[in-house]
Amino acid sequence: MGKTIALKVEALTKTFRDGGRKLVRAVDNATFHVEEGEVVGLLGPNGAGKTTTIKCALGLMGPDSGRITVFGEDVQSGYPGILRKMSAVLEGSRNLYWRLTVWENILFFSALHGVASSEDKAYFNHLLNLFSLEKKRNVEVRKLSQGMKQKTSVVCALARRTPLVFLDEPTLGLDVETSLELRTLLKQLALEEDRAFVVSSHDMDVIQDVCGRVIIMSQGRVVVDDRVSSLIDLFRTKAYRIALRGSVPPGLEERLRQEFAGASVAEIDSGTEVRVTLSEDDDIYRLMDILRDADAVIDEISHEEIDMEKVYLEVVRKERELL
Amino acid sequence: MNLGTVFLAVFRREWTMIKRYMVNSISSLMSVYLIFILIFMGFKSMSNYVMAGSLEGSLEGTVVGFFVWTFTIYAFSDLSWSLISEAQAGTLEQLYLAPCGFKWVGACTVLANLVFSLVPIMVLLFAMMATTGKWMNLDFVSLVPLLIITLLGAYGFGFALGGLALVFKRIQALFQIMQFVFVGFLIVPIRVAWAKFLPLAMGNSLIYTVMVDGARLWELPLNDILIAIAVGAAYLAVGIVIFSRCENVAKSRGLLGHY
Question: How far does the CA of residue B88 sit from the closest CA of chain A (Å)?
Answer without folding.
Answer: 9
